[in-house]
């Protein structure tokens, strides 16, 4: 071991020189800055870039905001009113007014009924869409009844037969244009003999319930096509698949459920069948009977 720690004079000088070099290099690295020169920044280009980023951010924020489309304020629901920023009290005042079968015809009248603030009215009023005759009356200052829509409902005899109506007849209903009138006629003609009941309008894609209600005010099924009523508790799978919205898989599950229940007690029990189209129950019930 002694031979490993015994150095000659020249070896000791070499060791001291090595230590000195190490210390000198460490000091050099510590005190001398070897970093490159400071980068030059084009401040005008940077400001332009930051402005562009900010504008893109604002556009993204604006696009994420809920969009408001033109609407008739007479048909504001609880959900619609809340999404527009109306309070529960303001919505309730509007609904109470409409329950009296009265109609709002101007922006000013809307504020008088709901008592919304001026600031909220300024935001909503540009999206109000009243019937054409109301707009014309307001523009021309032509006197009209305050509630021209407040009319006596038509009797069944006064209504037009939907199975004989033309596309032009349907377009007279507010909310029915060329697109929906043609879809209604196309659906009607797909059944030999036409519709059975007004509820079949639910099969017109995109047709809203409130528009169907408007159609029902002027139209009725006066000449329904003749159909065979199927007894649910005796029907075979082949009979069930002849009904709208029932395929073989659903028909099999209906029969299976019928056996487990030892017969259905009501047509509404069909809703408990797996994968049953609950939203089409009213249409399916047109073809069924319990006995």
TrEMBL record:
Record's protein name: Helix-hairpin-helix domain-containing protein
Superkingdom field: Bacteria
InterPro entries: Endo/Exo/Phosphatase_dom_1 (IPR051675), RuvA_2-like (IPR010994)
Species, as recorded: Mariniflexile gromovii
